[in-house]
Amino acid sequence: LLPAAGQRKAPPEAQRGRDGPRTTGSPRRRRRAPEPARSKATVKGRVVKSAIEEYHKKKPVNHLRENLQYMLKGRLVADKAIIEQVLAQNRGRKSKDQPPEKTEKKKPEGTVFTEEDFRKFEREYFGIP
Fold first, then answer.
1. Where are the beta strands (DSSP E) in 1-118?
2. pTM value?
3. Which of 21, 95, 103, 113 is deepest in the core (most CB within 10 A)?
4. This protein's superkingdom (predicted)?
5. What is the three-class DSSP state of 89?
């Protein structure tokens, strides 16, 4: 049988020399054709996830109990001056964010007169014996 036209190997002299020196008769490596990119719109190969599992993953977790345990565990209380400084740093600069100024309460002034002095004054002024 004769090979079909164009199927025979060319003699070594007729081959192009772009691949560099090769041993004669060794087959030329062929570049692999790039595979076409898969369409992302297909369902093939996708793992079906349970809606309940997804809901439980995204459900907010309440950390209140853990945080309370952590807060109650430490009994160290900072100085009042340091607490005031931290609160002042985290407070806003607007007047509505500022705490009201504490006014010192005036103590009621005590009298220097005693009950005996009042009785004496009554007797002298009103003439009551």
1. none
2. 0.22
3. 113
4. Eukaryota
5. helix
